[in-house]
Amino acid sequence: MWHVHGSWTTAFVQGAHDYLIPVLPDRGADGLGRAQTWDWPSSATEVTPQEAADAEIDVVVLQRPKELYGLARRWLGGRRPGVDVPAVYGEHNAPQGRIADMRHPAANRPELTLVHVTHFNDLFWDAGVTPTRVVEHGVVDPGYRYSGELPHAAVVINEARRRARVTGTDLLPRLNGHVPIDLFGMDAAALGGVGDPPQHELHREMARRRVYLHPIRWTSLGLSLIEAMHLGMPVVALATTEAPDAVPPEAGFVSTSVDALAAEVRRLVANREEAQQRGLAARDAALERYGLDRFLENWDTVLEEVAA
User: Fold this and answer.
1) What Cα–Cα distance (Å) separates residue 242 from each residue in 37, 114, 152, 252, 254?
2) Band of the pLDDT at 199, cuts 50, 70, 90?
3) Residues 225 and 251 sit within 8 Å (Cβ to Cβ)
4) CB atoms within 10 A of CB 58
5) Pairing with 172, which of 133, 147, 239, 261 sits 20 to 30 Å away (CA)?
6) 157 exposed, middle or buried (CB, 10 Å; 0-12, 13-18, 19+)?
7) pLDDT at 23 exceeding the cut of 90
8) How many whole angstroms separate alpha carbon 237 and alpha carbon 215?
9) What is the largest CA-CA distance in the chain?
10) Which residue ranges make up each domain of the chain?
């Protein structure tokens, strides 16, 4: 499997398997290799194209169209995913475009299994006759770290400027006048945000903020939201995609009204004790639904099913 999404892959490689991670000298997108800023077990091993071509592989995990249509076959010495070697396509993203045009790149490929990270994505992507499964996110528990000492809201958005309306970046000025908003993530500094610290530092700094704000319009359920809940942060989120189902009422507040979100952020920032109690509820909910053990068990079931 390719190292495509850092946080998701960090959780995935914690399982009881041997993971072969493609690596190239330039460590570009098609050969990033092991993570440099996350803690991965030794069972995640880097392989060159030559090593991958000769390796005995039980299942290949695809995550991008180019892996399905050419890249994996080149790395696997001509073996075809789903035909010569069992294959799973892990889809991380929500579909784009009109409802009628949301055909998945792996649609009508019955030799594959398409695995979504949310039920929302499974509902909206058109897979045709390709069998689908849902394995909801799981994260390595960062532990309860919430202090809420800063009366600010934390937001984590990668490439906030480029992704703009998709990630609700345009909503931040409307919300920023109510309480200070600290933006984290790649490209955050260019927008006057805090920046993109290493993950352990990011978790520490997030947990110092009173509230976690999730202004995302249309992406899959962000791992930063789940991590914030694990940290013990109360959540205020746009009620879009999977968020309404992921954030129970006792853990925070979800709405499609920007004014209502602003009012709730302001209220929780002013009520530190309530914010702490809602954060504890958020952590309990995240541990139950998005815990690492459940995530790995679900993936074991899928992998065993596909490899059989």
Assistant:
1) 28, 18, 25, 15, 11
2) confident
3) no
4) 12
5) 147
6) buried
7) yes
8) 6
9) 61
10) 6-138+292-307, 150-289
d(CA 94, CA 292): 22
Per-residue pLDDT at 178 exceeds 80: no
Average pLDDT over residues 101-113: 97
Tens of pLDDT, residues 256-306: 999 999 999 999 999 999 999 999 999 999 999 999 999 999 999 999 999
Q: Is 27 left (phi over 0), alpha (psi -120 to 50) or beta?
A: left
Structure confidence at residue 191 (pLDDT): 78
Residues whose CB falls within 8 Å of the CB of residue 289, separated by 6 or more in sequence, listed in order: 136, 246
- Please give the structure tokens belonging to residue 96: 């784009």
Among candidate residues 305, 308, 302, 306, the one with its CA nearest the CA of residue 133: 302
- DSSP per-residue letters across the chain: -----HHHHHHHTTSSS-EEEEB-TT--TT-B-S-SSS---TTEEEE-HHHHHHS--S-EEE-SHHIIIIIHHHHTTTPPBTTTB-EEEEE-S---S-GGG-B-TTTT-TTSEEEESSHHHHHHSB-TTS-EEE---------------EEEEEEE-TTHHHHGGGGTGGGHHHHHTTS-EEEESTTTGGGTS-B---HHHHHHHHHHEEEEEE--SSSSPPHHHHHHHHHT--EEEES-TTHHHHS-GGGEEEES-HHHHHHHHHHHHH-HHHHHHHHHHHHHHHHHHS-HHHHHHHHHHHHHHHH-
